[in-house]
Give the backbone structure.
Amino acid sequence: MADDPTDDPLLGAAMTRSGVLWVDVPGDRARPAWFAWSEGTAYVVNGPGEQYLPWLPEFVDLVLRSQDTGGRLLRVRARTRVLDPRGVEWGPAVEALVAERLNATGDVRERWRRECAVTALTPVGELLERPGTYDDASGATPPAPTRATTTTWRPRHLGGRPARRRGTR
C-alpha cells in the first residue's frame, strides 16, 4: 500500500460519493460535517450560519461511511490547516465548497470570508481502517451532554387519564 492515502482508489471513491464525513477529534466525539473533495483534500467550512465544528488540532481522524449500508467504511488520519482568505488556496477551496453547498443564500463567499473558517483536511499516512481491517470495538459513544434531557419518565397527562376513561382498556 502506498504512503499517500489519496492514491487509494477506495478513498477517492468514498470521498467523491459521500456528502458527509465524520471528523473524529481526539479527546472529544466524532462530528458529522459536509465537505467538498478536491485534488486529494477535503474542505469544510464552519462558523455562523454553517455547521459547527470545534477547534481542530493538527491531526484528526476522518470516518467515511458506505453508500450501500450507511456503516463505517474507512478511517484515515488527516492533517488540518485553516486557510487564509487572502491565500492562493482559499479561492479554489471555496469554489469547490459552493458547488457542494445546498440551499445557499446570499453571497456565501463574502460571508465565509468575513465570519467563517475554511479548513483543509488532507489525508496522511496509510488508511487506519478499511474493509477487512475493522477494530472489534463497536465505536459507540455516549450521547453528548445536554440540559435538554429528561431525567424521569413523565406521564402524558399529569393527572393521569380522565376518570370516565380509567379502566376502559
